[in-house]
Amino acid sequence: MQLAGKKVVVVGGSSGIGLATAELARHAGADVIIASRNAEKLDAVAGRLKVAAIPADVTDDASVENLFRRSGQVDHVVVTAAQLRTGPFKTVPMADVRSTFEGKFWGAWRVARVAEFRTGGSLTLVSGFLSIRPRPNSAIISAANAALESLSRALALELAPVRVNCVSPGIIDTPIRAAMPEAARQDMLARAAAGLPVGRVGQGEDVAHQIVACMTNGFMTGSTIYLDGGALVV
């Protein structure tokens, strides 16, 4: 198995893309640690997957430091954690704008600064295709995603020989959309799928496979992979 005996930390590993990545890495033989803010949810997922769990809030310096003090040296780190709040540019509250950037961008920054990697290690960040395909009412998410992609390229130099890459998903059917009324969610996903060359929206597992590829390809660093079902070419 490609990741046998490797220690993998998935920050944001209790749901969505992070959970799918933790499952796939565990199946590939890794010793997995998942981290997120919701300790109760985290423990339930860890018990089901038979992985370790460490509560961590990426918006808090001490919490991130505690995560990697407890983890020790690691082989691969994945950051999927994000609390996204957005709205029309002129009216979205500045508190929401700041909290989105704090969690999405500065959270990844904190993790990258603190994590201690073994030889051959990698860091994979997760952004989103709004970085280069912005939409109305999502300016702060577009900006945070673009900043993450730029950060990953800079860190590929600063943290070398640790490999640093970024995966930028398109529309993925994950629990982050669960706040929508179900009928509206299904309608939105169906319309999105109809406009894509692949004829469907993505699943967490689709992104997880690419993240694991970033971990295991020793010649890959400084890359941003757009995984969007063809959204950027239509």
UniProtKB/TrEMBL annotation:
Keywords assigned: Oxidoreductase
Highest taxon of the lineage: Bacteria
Gene3D superfamilies: NAD(P)-binding Rossmann-like Domain
Ketoreductase domain location: 6-174
Family note: Belongs to the short-chain dehydrogenases/reductases (SDR) family.
Protein name, entry field: SDR family oxidoreductase
